[in-house]
Amino acid sequence: MSIYSDIGLNTTKTTTAASSAASSTKSNSLSQEDFLSLLTTQLAYQDPTNPVDNAEMVSQMAQISTVEGITSLNNSVSSLSSVVTSSQALMASGLVGQKVLMPTNTGYLTSADGLTGVLATGSGASDLKVTVTDANGAVVYEESMSGDYTGNVPFSWDGKDSDGNPVADGKYTVKVNGLVDGKSQDLSALVYGKVSSVTLGTSSTATTLNINGLGSIELSKILEVTS
What we know:
Elements: H1 3-6, H2 12-24, H3 32-44, H4 54-93, E1 99-102, E2 106-109, E3 115-120, E4 125-133, E5 139-149, E6 152-157, E7 170-180, E8 183-199, E9 208-211, E10 215-218, E11 224-226
């Protein structure tokens, strides 16, 4: 065996054999053990008149340590991502059939459940006026709420118009106006939706809840869950 083969160099006679061995190797990655073996061989066969520079050797060792550390970190992050995804899937599966508060003022009315939500009055508002409009923008219901309110005020509509007649199931929008510091101001209304199914996410896609009559919404955007 020649010195060339000891340090990984091929002569003409060994080129064919080395090529065959390389083609059968499944992994082309350089492990820490491979690096240390190469480094040891380099030191063993270095030119005595031109030895390896200490700083260069330390730099090479630092580089392989950094690469291995990054690989280990990536594996840890992947494992953590899998745990988070599994946890979200377990939590989301329990939301089917539940009502969730969404960051929108348009909800889906059914004769069985009506339409519920909250009126966001913030630090305070008074004499609230709630208006419900249909998909065409026509007003179907109005309600006045006298007095002072703060925070999120529960709101419920049984699905009947101002004359007491039931309206058709479908999408309806809730608007609210009130007095803030004595001035009329539009406030925010948020509505609940019923979860009909769940689409589980992955490490790169979000878990989404499919809301009856309204489409889907990301789990992270849900504000509250209620039965």
